[in-house]
Amino acid sequence: MLKNGVSPKSPRNLLFLFEVLSLFLLFIYQWESVNRYTYITGIGLIFIIYISNLILNRISKGDNYIFLIVTMLISIGVIMIYRIDSELGVKQLIWLSFGIFIFYLTYFTLRFIRGWQKWITLYIGVAYILFILTFILGTRKYGAINWIQIGSFSFQPAEITKILLIFILASYYSNTEKFKKYKNAKYYIMLIVYSFIGLLFLQKDLGTALIFYGIFVAIQFIYEEDRRLILYNLGLFAIGGIIGYGLFDHVKVRILTWIDPWSYIDNKGYQITQSLFAIAEGGFFGTGLGLGHPEFIPLAYTDFIFPAICEEMGLFAGIGIIMLFLILVYRGFKIALSQINPFFRILALGVSILFGVQSIIILGGVLKVLPLTGITLPFVSYGGSSVLSSFIVLGILQVASEDLPIDEDLKLEEENNEIRD
Amino acid sequence: MKSEIRRIILVLIVICLSFVGIIGYMSYFQVFEAESVKMNSYNKRLWINEENILRGSIADRKGRILAYSEKQDNQMKRFYKYGSLYSHIIGYSYREYGKAGLELIYNNQLLNINENSAIDELINIVAPNTIGNNLELTIDHGTQEKARALLSGKKGAIVAMNPKNGEIYAMVSLPDFNVTSLKDDWGTISEDANSPLLNRATQGLYPPGSSFKVITSAAILKNQALSNDYKCTGTTTINGYVFKDYQEGGHGNLNLSQALAQSCNTYFTTKSLELGGELLRNTAEDFMFNKSIPFDMPVKISSFPSGKLGDTDLAASAIGQGKVLATPLNMVMVASSIANNGEMVRPVLVKKILSSDGKVIKLNRSETISQAVDSLKANEIKEMMVGVIREGTGKKASIRNVQVAGKTGTAENASGKSHAWFIGFAPVSDPKIAISVVLEEEGSTGGTSAAPIARDLIIYGLNNINF
Asked: H helices of A3-85, where?
């Protein structure tokens, strides 16, 4: 569908070169502790990324650049994680391999099963079940109760519910004709989304709550015919923010440490100030891989990976990462505009907004542009749930970038005025 | 659906602008804020460098070492030779308590870390240095010791500087603290109500009291119509507020010179009403009130009230009371500018930065930062300030064989006990040293308590400083 002016082959080779060079640097830095795993990680990374780009070109006729962009992000991320903690680096590589597998799985499932736009009730149901499970089985991690621990395996349900949210919104807004029969459908949708946001608030997962809100408002802005609702939404956000500030200590702390972290430097403002130190120390070119001190940054391998990268690779690498996200979002929107299937069009939009909003929230957070909320930087941060969900989302975008027929079932359904939900 | 596409593009634009905004902020942060952020003593990276680089030493103007580092058992150890004498100038550099004073401000120079350009950065990565740079201060160790001895047992500050080239010879603030026993004292120091951590010379804001009359005199001289005599009866009432003189029954007939010598409150308050707030404020601002003073250390901004002043406020301001506040450093600069034909020079504390092999890396030269008054008026005020010492309130600052000029001050404040001030300089024919003394909540007049301290320090300084 999208005509590529340049063959994806040459950026693929550039990426290969980048990986070889940065791994070489890493080897020099860790020369004394280089072991079997180092080689496995290095060769594994290059191999997995090169091969999967190659395969994708054969399978998908859609946009093959988005996967290239993502593999660049992955490369920077995994190299940085490995440099911080080699054990985590190896683990992350395993997650990435699994993530790429999930990417293909999502791609094929979505491509060859029909009728995704019809199952809105299912999405809503599963989302609520995941929320309830989190409350029952949830364990506290970094202040938020948003992890489910099963054995040694921990998992963050919100990573799945945010995808479900996109499906719910896409199902709803691609079938507005059908839902018109229900009088207050648009209010129900709003109520459901706000109940999600409220639950996330209670779990103290403010970052994800913001992502939900961002996706909802953006999609609503594009598709809601009743323009008043958008204003209501903005109003509710303001009211919710003020109530949250007064009611919840954790919201208050975020705002206070955002306005002036320096006064709370040895307790609440510790994380953000350490992040600023790292970015400041990096300068334009960085200290060089292995020559900085990401060990001073709390959670440098997940939420705070961006300052760690800025410290060692410099401001220019940081800007590079932001540009990669910008191009990814841009291509996502381009995919949406070219997609004629309304369901997949909204899916593509939701997914692109998700990438955009999530990266803006965490980048703004570690730079003290926005209040800091703990979420991962997609594809760069360490974390199984984050990697898997990001790849599912990417798989969705990949499908949406192809020529898809408008579902015939749907048309028939509409004609017969049949309601199945 | 045209509007759908329009809205999609709008959302895309918002997201893209957010990304661009973040990039913009990051670049701004890196260019303008990073340097000062890095200097924060909570930045542990400062201490990493510390372990590999021999921190430079700090010496006074005669080369006497005040602080130095040594390598002991593979660890860098910092030594401060004079305990509390330099607690507010040199400060300290300890892992547990961070850095303060010149140790903080000149950290990069002491460790010889240059990160001014990308090239320097690359050089640092390839060939990191191991020996830091040394600092040579303008301080004269003997004068500093003398100043602290004169002030001991009191609260307050003394600053002594060269009025022509801005070199600071001594800067003492009491109470202070012993930097060598910070570990044991930290609890008491940080909670002491007298705030020993505060450098009163640069950070203390005091009502200058009558010492401010030097500035009011400069304003009066600008307006020839005000030079007529005035009869002082001891009190004057402005808008129902009574301004009193120290001398009961008043000073009788006075001209400006006599009024300054006797520090006649009624003279200055009455004249100020004719002067107007605008002119007085402009004059104060020429003396660096309401302006930030460039210095090697952060300096609080002395304040003169803004906006339109009521008569009572104006009259109070004219005698350095009310909302007028000044730092001791600013007041010594006021005295210096009178000594230096009205030219106010930038104060200098760090004279030279020297590399480990003795090469001068940076020489700190002073410059004129403000023409406070023209030289004619400066010399008139100088003569009046000589009168203050010869026959006025500042008699106790007079020295045999050396002509001193000065002005005393007794500033009322909320504590109920007045601050005692003295500002001045000597010798009048060729001023070499200017001094400001403030004794916080001393409860006596500047003439009785601050003036003799200034006299003793001037005598010591003139005999011992290598000018």
From this structure: 9-29, 36-59, 65-84
